[in-house]
């Protein structure tokens, strides 16, 4: 079971009446989606490291690691991104796309004993803003 974010972009929905522009727009959107999900994964990993805990602070005080949610590196290393073309759609995903351990979700969403880090949520918000800005820029240049 994966836990992440998926974008599906159909270039024709952005300007079907401009048929001479659609092929270029499709390529631009595909490249844009790839960049956004790569940035999303990078940001998610950064947020994991920035989610300081008392346990992490104790690790640092002992000279053993970082204050963020990084002990063995398993949760951090499990963050990935992918993008691909599917017919007329550009699809991109980031997050924990392979096996998701319950521990990741406890860290992400929090429990009664663990403060939520919201790394995926924050990365999604950043990626959504980046997506909106980049689509607007493509539309400004093309149409």
Task: Give an account of the 3D structure.
With 143 residues, the protein is α+β, with helices and mostly antiparallel strands. It has one domain (3-132). It has helices at 19-50, 54-61, 74-77, 102-109, 119-142, and strands at 3-9, 79-86, 89-96. It has a 3-stranded antiparallel beta sheet. A hairpin with a 2-residue loop joins strand 2 (79-86) and strand 3. Helix 1 (19-50) packs antiparallel against helix 5 (119-142). 27% of the residues are buried.
Structural descriptors:
143 residues; alpha+beta; elongated
Report how far apart the termini are: 40 Å
Strand order of the largest sheet: 1-3-2
H/E series, N to C?
EHHHEEHH
Shape: elongated
Largest sheet: 3 strands, antiparallel
Strand content: 15-25%
The value of Rg in angstroms is: 18 Å
Count of discrete domains: 1
Percent helix: 40-55%
Structural class: alpha+beta
| Low-confidence segments | 14-20
Brief summary of the model shown:
Helix content is 53%, strand content 16%. The chain has 143 residues and is an alpha+beta fold. Mean pLDDT is 84; it is low at 14-20.
């Amino acid at each position: 079971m994966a836990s992440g974010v998926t974008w599906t972009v159909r270039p024709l929905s952005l300007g079907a009446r401009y048929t001479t522009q659609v092929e270029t727009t499709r390529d631009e959107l595909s490249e844009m989606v790839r960049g956004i999900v790569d940035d999303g994964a990078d940001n998610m990993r950064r947020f994991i490291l920035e989610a300081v805990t008392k346990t992490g602070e104790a690790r640092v005080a002992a000279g053993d690691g970082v204050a963020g949610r990084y002990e063995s590196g398993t949760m951090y290393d499990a963050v990935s991104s992918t993008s691909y073309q599917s017919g007329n759609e550009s699809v991109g995903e980031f997050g924990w796309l392979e096996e998701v351990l319950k521990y990741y979700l406890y860290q992400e969403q929090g429990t009664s004993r663990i403060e939520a880090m919201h790394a995926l949520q924050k990365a999604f918000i950043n990626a959504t803003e980046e997506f909106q800005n980049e689509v607007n820029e493509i539309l400004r240049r093309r149409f």
